């Protein structure tokens, strides 16, 4: 007879029944807790506070956590199993996932289609009536691969380990297959009405879903095994759908610039713009496209996970209780949290705000050095460290340098940019004024447009342009050129300069 124990999770107030011997990671990941280092015990991102029960400290915890933190009950959930009743306080909890409800033009067709944004961290899928364009059902979820690494390079590292790639491919195929089934069930739609499924994502997600070799992406010159459209029969994916359903993962644009950016081009109409425009996806793998009707150049830059709150002392994703906005008021920092709850940590938008406000207060020098002491206080219990500021400098420097280098490739200046679209959740919520203050987006705020989930919107548009999907969008891709930023002249110097904060 199997033995089960209750695990109470605060501040959710939920209790789950767990079989003895189950890894805590297997309990917490489906509930939204992330494991930034892939559950390897190398970071502190999966911290939980033991309020009741027994979890003896491990060697990894004794190395990463202070004696005081251990005495307070803090543990790394990736290092433990359930062997008795537990009461835990979570340092993270589920985040909202950006969907898309924007209207778009289409030619009515028969049947149903499903658009899927396969993000490194999150997944979003919508069931669309191809005759009316109406969204009939929506499903969002954490990417099940995320427990094996929060950013794409840690995901690649895991994939190169024995059986790692097979595990990641199986996880994403099984999970998305379940989401597809759930979408049809929610809408009460028979599978026979489904015509096609369009998936978009970055190059690593493209390769992992397709079961392709990731080794070329792990070494110079970092070029993919293939960047073309991947077409599947549902049965080979293990999906219980009619064989007539076509499943296609849209093509990448080159290097680490994936089909999520190609979808962004469809969603924004950048290639149809007469004036020079820029599309930027502010994520761990910062991707950007610069161009107009004359063509475009695209590139990616390793910004790291700071924009998502990872590798920050008190960082967390944009979830309830996260400090999402910070202002300077009467010589101090005033913090605002999501949901109006007591502050639990700080997310990416709050981090940008906090540093921008601290720059105005002269608490941070243009070099990034803290001038207000050894830490930057946010609340009585939360602070930013010098290393946290450095992490933001690395991230914003990578994006700013990438923009500068792309402009150089196009022979253009900052002032010649007509419009800048910000894609993704972080770009949707970040303060444009704060982004300009820290030098992340050196543009007048009125030129910057939060564009939402352009990947999902572009995937929906692709459902109505299926011939181009299957052909790999040759006309659109012919207009573009992929640039490897690290090979551009002066890359190191430009990156170094971009890390410096503007003096005012």
What do these coordinates show?
The relative contact order is 0.11. The chain is built from 16 helices and 22 strands. It is α/β, with parallel strands linked by helices and 504 residues long. Strand 1 and strand 2 (14-19) form a beta hairpin. It has a domain at 4-90: Ubiquitin-like (UB roll) (Roll). The strands form 5 sheets. A 6-stranded mixed beta sheet has the order 8-7-6-9-11-10, sandwiched between helices.
Q: Topology of this protein?
A:
Layout: E1 4-10, E2 14-19, H1 24-28, E3 47-52, H2 59-64, H3 67-72, E4 74-76, E5 86-90, E6 112-118, E7 122-129, E8 135-142, H4 152-160, H5 164-187, E9 194-201, H6 203-210, E10 230-232, H7 234-237, E11 246-249, H8 259-268, E12 277-281, E13 285-292, E14 295-302, E15 322-329, E16 332-337, E17 345-346, H9 348-360, E18 375-377, E19 383-385, H10 386-410, E20 419-423, H11 424-429, H12 432-437, E21 448-452, H13 454-463, H14 466-471, H15 474-478, E22 480-482, H16 491-498
Parallel strand pairs: 1-5, 6-9, 9-11, 12-20, 14-22, 15-17, 20-21
Antiparallel strand pairs: 1-2, 3-4, 3-5, 6-7, 7-8, 10-11, 12-13, 13-14, 15-16, 18-19
Helix pairs in contact: 4-5, 8-13, 10-16
Can you give me a brief rundown of this structure?
The protein is α/β, with parallel strands linked by helices and 504 residues long. Helices cover 30% and strands 24% of the residues.
Radius of gyration: 23 Å
Helix content: 25-40%
Give the CATH level 1 class of the domain at 4-90. Answer: Alpha Beta
Tell me about the largest β-sheet. 6 strands, mixed
Q: CATH superfamily membership of the domain at 4-90, which one?
A: Beta-grasp domain
Describe the global form. Answer: globular
Question: What separation lies between the terminal Cα atoms?
Answer: 68 Å
In CATH terms, what is the fold-level topology of the domain at 4-90? Ubiquitin-like (UB roll)
Quaternary state reads single chain
Beta-strand residue percentage: 15-25%
Strand element count: 22
Alpha plus pi helix count: 16
| Alpha-beta content class | alpha/beta
Please state how the strands of the largest beta sheet are arranged side by side: 8-7-6-9-11-10
